[in-house]
Amino acid sequence: MTPTRTELFAARLPLRARRRAVRASWRLAVLRGRAGTLGIAEALARTLRVPAREARRLDREAVFADRMTSLEWLAILSRSREALVADAAHVTILERGMLERVAAGARPVILAPLHMGSFALPFARLVHDVFPGRRMLILRAREDREIETRVMRRISEIGTDMRFLNVRDKQDYIDAVRFARAGAVIVSFVDLPASYGGPVDTTLFGRPARLAMGLDALARLTEATVVPLAVRSHLDGDVVAPGRPFEVAESGPEAKARVTDLVRRHIEASVLAAPEQWFMWQRLGEFLAAPEAAQERAA
Question: With 80 as the cut, is the pLDDT of residue 144 above it?
Fold first, then answer.
C-alpha cells in the first residue's frame, strides 16, 4: 500500500518524535472511535485469561503496534544513513556480556526470535555491536514481501550485511548450514504454525498446539549455539531481550521434545511481556490443535 504524505513526513522524523507522532494520531483515533481493532480480543481473553475489558484494550494497542512497525519500515527506507545510526542509538541490548561470549565462541550462532516488535533496526544494531563483520541471514520459508526485501537491502547499503535466505527445500537448508559454518549469524523465527513444516505437538498458554520445528535439526547440523530472542518496541526505543543459550548435540524424539519445550517457554514468556506486540495473534487458530482450533473459529 502506498504511504500517505503524513506517513512519509512522520517517517523522516527522529525515532522518538515519529513514534510519539503516530501514538498521538492513534490516541486521537481512539477518542473518535475510529482506531479500529484487529479482532483478536476473544483470542486474547481465552489464551491469556484476561478480563474482556483488558482484552479489548490489548486489541486496540495491537493496532498501534502494527502502525508503529509499519512506520519503522518506512523510516528505514526514508532516512539517511546518519539519521538511522542516530535511531539505532535508541536500541538497548540486554545481557550484552552473555551475547559477546556467545559471539566470541567457536560455534556458529543461531538467533531464534519471535515475530514481535519493530525488529529490523534492532537486528542491525545487534550485528553491528555484538557480531561485527558478520553477515546476518534471516531464514524465510514462504513468500517474499517486497517491503521487507527493500528494508534489508537498505540496511545492507548502510553497512550491515543483513538479508533474507529463502528456505523452501533441502538444498536451501544445506546453504543455510554452509553459511552458518562460514560465520554468518542465522536468524530462524520460532513462532510459526505447523504448516511451515516439521510439525510437533506441544501447548501454548495451556492450550494444545502444534508448532513448526526445524530449529533442532538446524542447530545440530551446524553445531551452533542457539540464542532465543525477542524485540520489544516502545516510544523511546527498542529492547533486544535474549534468553538462555542452548545447544543441540543429539537427534531423536527426546532431543526434539527438549527443544520444543524450550521454544514453547520462550514464546510464552516473550508474549506475556508484551502481548500487544506479537504479530501472530490473528493466526492463532493455525497453531492450535484441531479441537481448540475449531473452538477458536467458532468464537
Answer: no
